[in-house]
Amino acid sequence: MPEPLLEVDDLRVTFRTRRGTVTAVDGLSFALAAGDTLGIVGESGSGKTVSMLSILKLIRDPNARISGRVLFRGRNLLELTDRELRDVRGRDIAMIFQDPMTALTPVYRVGWHIAEQIRAHEKVSRQAARDRAVRLLAEVGIPEPGRRVDNYPHEFSGGMRQRAVIAMALACNPALLIADEPTTALDVTTQAQVLDLMRRLRETHGSAIVVITHDMGVVSEIADRVLVMYGGRAVERGPKREVFRRPRHPYTWGLLDSVPRMAGPRVRRLPMIPGTPIGPLDLPAGCGFAPRCRLRHQACEVRPELADAPTGGTRNGASEHVDACWLPAEGRAALRERSREESRG
Ligand SMILES: Nc1ncnc2c1ncn2[C@@H]1O[C@H](COP(=O)(O)OP(=O)(O)O)[C@@H](O)[C@H]1O
Ligand code: SF4
Ligand SMILES: [Mg+2]
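That is the input. Now the predicted structure with adenosine-5'-diphosphate docked in place:
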């Protein structure tokens, strides 16, 4: 793997609550090179958002504790001052959230948001920033951008707002874009356009992208590599082709089986894996997926670490395919088939 742009090492995020300590992220590690797209996938509550927010120290809860290392171009973001981080955010690293309204202030015009983003990081005139805002709105497919630039957020549709937020994120050509469920609230057509915009950012500027989603369909369209999260931990990580062709972890099997296979309008629904996701207050000592796993056995009472299979998969740096499960490395496809048949009853 070329020199990573972002290296997350043993990231851990806990919250002190009245009911006890909540472990939202439990030792997450991954690396990302320029131009690479990582899809982080997992059901709701698996720690996707908290892990990305903590990377940029955007968790404001005073009861939160973050540990580990987050190296961006070799600097540990967790050790930067607020001032230093403000420079990094927006200019080097941009973030898009599921709800575009979190990024838009209702009393300011759409164009103001984009222009401010530019002026916060570059010395340009108001007029020049506004001109660029118009161009960016055109680029993300807003019709009549010269007029729309003066609209307020509430005058935009949901899809247009998400595109405006993307225009803000693209304003400074960030080296890294973190997109948290960027398409979840959008219709299928707008979703395809948004994914296309992200692809273009990668192609024209060599930006790296982390896209968070609960939708394997989104991952299959845009990611180069995949990280599957469950209960605050990575349970599988590898090149997309490998993970889709030879998924190793029973939880990943469930996610893949819940992707509608048929062509036509995409059915938008959460994965249907039997059982409920574990809450972060009751993480089991062993494998977190055990309560829902048909293949659990005695070994599973001990926590399995992310590990390379002794056979199969490619094993050079970024393309390594690892998972955290005690099942024998070989014959997983047959096990998957068998457990699928059993689940049909
Ligand atoms: N401020 C907080 N205090 C306590 N628990 C929290 C806090 N923020 C998030 N959590 C918990 O952390 C877990 C991970 O949340 P999150 O990262 O939002 O999941 P995801 O984005 O994968 O749906 C959830 O169980 C959530 O309830
Ligand atoms: S370690 Fe055990 S419980 Fe966990 S996924 Fe593998 S077989 Fe299932
Ligand atoms: Mg989330």
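The pocket of adenosine-5'-diphosphate (ligand 1) is lined by residues 15, 17, 22, 24, 42, 44-50, 61, 280 (CB under 6 Å).
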